[in-house]
Amino acid sequence: MSNRDLFAAARDEVKRTNAPLPARMRPRTLDEVIGQRHLLAPGAAFRSMVEAGRLGSIILWGPPGTGKTTLARVAATTSGGSFEALSATSAGVKDVREVLASAEARLGEGRGQTILFLDEIHRFTKAQQDALLPGVEDGTVTLIGATTENPFFEVNSPLISRATVFRTEALSPAEVGELIQAAFDDAMRGIVGVTITDEAREAVASRVGGDARLALNTIEVAAAIVAGRGEASIDIDVVEEALQRRIIRYDRAGDRHYDVISAFIKSLRGSDPDAAVYWLQTMIEAGEDPKFIARRMVVFASEDVGLADANALAIASHAFRAVEVVGLPEANYAMTHATLYLALAPKSDSVKTSLAASRELVESDHVGEVPAHLRSGATDGDRGFGFGVGYQYPHSDPRAVVEQTYLPDSVVERTLYLPKRVGAETELAERLEKIDKILGKPTRL
What we know:
Layout lengths: L2 H15 L3 H4 L12 H4 L4 H7 L6 E4 L6 H12 L2 E6 L5 H16 L5 E6 L6 H12 L3 E7 L3 H4 L2 H4 L3 E4 L5 H13 L9 E2 L1 H10 L4 H17 L4 E2 L1 H8 L11 H15 L3 H13 L4 H16 L5 H15 L5 H14 L5 H15 L15 H5 L40 H15 L6
Parallel strand pairs: 1-4, 1-5, 2-3, 3-4, 6-7
Helix pairs in contact: 6-7, 10-11, 10-12, 11-13, 12-13, 14-15, 14-16, 15-18, 16-17, 16-18, 17-18
């Protein structure tokens, strides 16, 4: 080991000793990592590549505190490579070139491969990302990029094509609880002289949204609070102080989970924006999966607002996309935006009733033959059987509607959509009334 590497090792040890709890408790081997079983289980692609020393350049994509830096460091240690770290928030092209030059020198001296960990790679400009390409392409460095943003949108295509993307997932409350307990069990690196109650541990585990870093930071603050008071145990009140926000009594696997989401949906349906945002924040503050809430809003937009305000579906879908791309806490703005919009939108369940009626009819009508004039008449043979013959092209009529049947003969008299005269659907109902007269259909209302 060179003098430079010895100095770096000594420097890192000093940093580790004085580091915050998340850094001190950073796993040293793949087996010490808690969570990410889809990456680390025996036979998983990521684990196999690391253990075989054939990692190649990768991009780790996932929420904050899910172990992206840890996986990069463990990969470097396991594969025997030298580890270099840069953050895209502060590094520039000059820093990248210096790392590439050092990596090339290390290879030339027979000191092995260099693994470059680039945190928040999505913050690099195109020019900065392009500066990485030569070193990645010729194997001078093995790149491990970390990002909370979708790399397929934020990272240049040439770099993406030279890397394997692995997704890290938020830890489950059980995994966070295991991580917290490990910090109290480790006398060398963890918290000593203080214990934590089961209730407090579970409260932290359910409140940090699967963020391991936040969980460890929280219990370190809580430990400092009780030590300063001369106490020996962290209880739920101390955890509340450490988190700086009240812990909501909420069981994601129990009845209250279903009761609160039910209250949320019924408040939206009842057009009460105050109640809707109250229940929304109750769920978010309690650590409910934001994607679960956003999915319910997307369903609600069609089921309960429907054509009374067709924009509702777009607003709800955009909120779901914000949860995916931005994540909490920032995505809370989009979720609150969508919640208020859905609560205030006019309500119609005609999409729901139309869906149910059409599904029931399809399941009960086993004849359902496509009328001959609606069938494809692409060939002379088809037309010889009458397929496509007699079909009237609506655009040939100035009204863009012509008298013609579109349902199978067996159900031609059935009505499956009943518009409600509310919101924007009022205009659709009036338009449909005119269309029905041209088509010769019976009155709907």
